[in-house]
Amino acid sequence: MPTEIVFETHSWSEDNERGLATGWLPGRLSARGRALAAELGRRRRSDGIVAVFVSDLGRAVETADVAFAGTTIPVLHDWRLRECDYGERNGMPAAELHGRRSRYLDRPYPGGESWRQAVHRVGRFLDDLSLRWAGQRVLVIGHVATRWGLDHRIDGARLEDLVDADFGWREGWEYRMTDPHDPQDPR
């Protein structure tokens, strides 16, 4: 039975409002972001979610805290769900940083990591997910790198295509992941 993964981005942050690429900096939600996080909670609390996995960066943790406050759904922090580490460029203007994103597909940002390294990190999270949560419906709250990791690993999207594409925000993406540890899985 496949594991159902619902992906949601962290809510709107103060850096989003300022046009900054937060990267591995913690970031904080704006007033708009807290309202969107509350909406995420209303949308997902009764959606069959058995656990929430969230990047350990501040803006993602704050999103989960607002969305799932007062519920019994476990919220589990995982550093592997972080955004790409832009290194020395964390916090710079997003338009400037993302305009040259494809240059860093395989080459790390100065003092940081490459997009391929970030996506590989998300893949390691997915390897572990099926050990405990196989066949269940979980929510993942993360960033661009998190979504690309899901797109690449589960849907087979090429990173070369993802790195040049617009993120195209929406209310949730859904994935179905077969269990790589299941001997009955024909994969």
Automatic annotation (TrEMBL):
Keywords: Glycolysis, Isomerase. It holds the Pfam family His_Phos_1. SUPFAM superfamilies: Phosphoglycerate mutase-like. Its EC number is 5.4.2.11. The keyword Metal-binding does not apply. Gene3D superfamilies: Phosphoglycerate mutase-like. InterPro entries: His_Pase_superF_clade-1 (IPR013078), His_PPase_superfam (IPR029033), Phosphogly_mut1 (IPR005952). It is an enzyme of class 5 (isomerase). It comes from the Bacteria. Belongs to the phosphoglycerate mutase family. BPG-dependent PGAM subfamily. This is phosphoglycerate mutase (2,3-diphosphoglycerate-dependent). It comes from Micromonospora cathayae.
